[in-house]
Amino acid sequence: MPLNLRLTAQVAEALLDAVPEGALLVGADNQVVAVNQQLVELARLQDVDTSPGTSVGALAKAVAKQLPAGSTSLRQLNRRQFPRTAEVRFLDGRVLRTNRRPIDVAGERVGVLWLAEDITEQRRREHDLRRHVRTLGELARERSEFTARASHELRTPLATILSFCELLAPPSGDPLSAAQATYLATIRRNAQRMQEMVDGLLHAATAAGTRPEATYARVDMARLLGRLTGDLQPRAQAAGIFLVHAHEPGPPAFADRSQLENALAALLDNAVKFTPPGGTVTVSAHPYDEPDGTGWEISVADTGIGIPKEFQEEVFTEFVRAPNARRGAYPGTGLGLSAVRDTVRMHDGHIALHGGEGDGTAVVLRLPTGRPAPAGHG
Questions:
Q1: What are the tens digits of pLDDT across the range 325-371?
Q2: Would you give the distance in Å from CA 306 to the centre of its chain?
Q3: N or C: which end of the chain has fewer CB atoms below 10 A?
């Protein structure tokens, strides 16, 4: 071998030994110029001739024996169509990532440098991470579904308990002894506290990213609102509030019944809670047919304390309550309107708030009758 070629091979080998990855330098004649010890160990080439001038085919065959049938081998080491970066999986479970780096001098291809690194542990960690993410996602979905289901099941009995508390208390019920009044106040106070907890749980279940998958079906809006206002009637009557409702018949809407029912119930609860005795809560619903589509317009209006205009956008934010609600010591967590807004948006609807402090509040929902677009659509 000429002196200059030997010197070139020696220099190349010294350079490759300084490379942390396994490295192979192949000349334009498809012969080995240099191989570092890292590649010999990675590719299990201890019993293969890797000396300069050896045909690269022998190396490719030695590697191919360690690969599953049909896998890409190193037979294409010097072929231009071989991908610049590839992963090679060995029969023993190891995964090597290879990189092809053409070497050109003065516009002429003089060789190819191959680099290889063991990424087995990296791929294992990535696989474990994906598995853990899937597991956590499934647990979050199950927790969210359980929370929503539990919240829905608790809301009705709590509303019943509070309604009967109002019916038992004077002037609706008979006069109570001091002990009975104390017992009733305790029941009412703890039921209200539980109701606040349910509101928090419900909002947690419907928060962005954890909302359980919606189940859409045809919903008779007038019938749903009629039932909700009927359930609320005893409580409103006991509080001395006039409950007026007008529900026109109309086409069914595609909606998640459970989530929509919870949102409407929250609006009705708020209207009664923030209206003093002698006030009025008016619930109306009528279908609309406009050039951009059909739907339902639902209004829940009250003559209560109202919401200051400067807070009418902010109250849709989690845990935000209007200052007059805080001053009046009205129970609540500031989650109700936020959860209502999220539900309305989920149904491709719109929500608007009207009124002002001391002028009552009217919340108007516009819900399309068609099936909502999939998440992320458009």
A1: 888 777 676 777 888 898 899 899 999 999 999 999 999 999 998 87
A2: 34
A3: C
8 A C-beta contact, residue 245 and residue 227: no
pLDDT digit string, tens, across residues 168-203: 888 777 888 888 888 888 888 778 778 777 766 665
120: left (phi over 0), alpha (psi -120 to 50) or beta: alpha
pTM beyond 0.70: no
**Cβ density class 208-222: b for 16+ within 10 Å, e for less:** eeebbebeeeebbbb
CB-CB contact of 223 with 252 (8 Å): no
Rg (CA), the chain: 36
3-state secondary structure string across the chain: CCHHHHHHHHHHHHHHHCCCCEEEEEECCCEEEEECHHHHHHCCCCCCCCCCCCEHHHHHHHHHCCCCCCCCCHHHCCCCCCCCEEEEECCCCCEEEEEEEEEEECCEEEEEEEEEEECHHHHHHHHHHHHHHHHHHHHHHHHHHHHHHHHHHHHHHHHHHHHHHHHHCCCCCCCCCHHHHHHHHHHHHHHHHHHHHHHHHHHHHHCCCCCCCCCCEEECHHHHHHHHHHHHHHHHHHCCCEEEEEECCCCCEEECHHHHHHHHHHHHHHHHHCCCCCCEEEEEEEEEEECCEEEEEEEEEECCCCCCHHHCCHHHCCCCCCHHHHHCCCCCCCCHHHHHHHHHHHCCCEEEEEECCCCCEEEEEEEECCCCCCCCCC
Asked if 52 and 45 touch (Cβ cutoff 8 Å), the reply is: no
